[in-house]
Here is the input.
Amino acid sequence: MAKNHWLFKSEPSVFSFSQLQERRAKGTEWDGVRNYAARNNMRAMQVGDLGFFYHSNEGLEIVGIAEVCALAHPDSTTDDPRWECVDIRALKPVPKPVSLDAVKANPKLKEMALVRLGRLSVQPVTPAEWKEVCRMAGLDPAP
DNA sequence: GCCAACGTTGGC
DNA sequence: GCCAACGTTGGC
Here is the structure.
């Protein structure tokens, strides 16, 4: 049962939402995260949890919704047992991408990790933030 | 390309 | 266990 919401950040020149969509059937290991806070967030994820997919560096906008399809497991890109990752797959693109500027301009979202903890690559999203960003993205009701 | 923010490392 | 140095991220 999906309970929590998240935000996954990726540079589109490295890995974009369209690439996530292309691999939808297989799912994609969200590997390479080397930050404890981000890892702890992934450990807390459940299969079926949903998250925003945000393009950093270029685009600077939330472009889609992703779904967790495997619980945290060892990161195959390292032998270091500290690092784990989940698998995600694309659920759907959003009708209207939500830019960082739009998030910053919305008083309801001023506490969002995307604004306050700019460098964290895997972030929790509160139910209220989820609902509000979905509304801005043209997804109403929120998935 | 620059720089601020911030997490990590390592000397003590 | 503190803290300075260093590296990385990511917005601009």
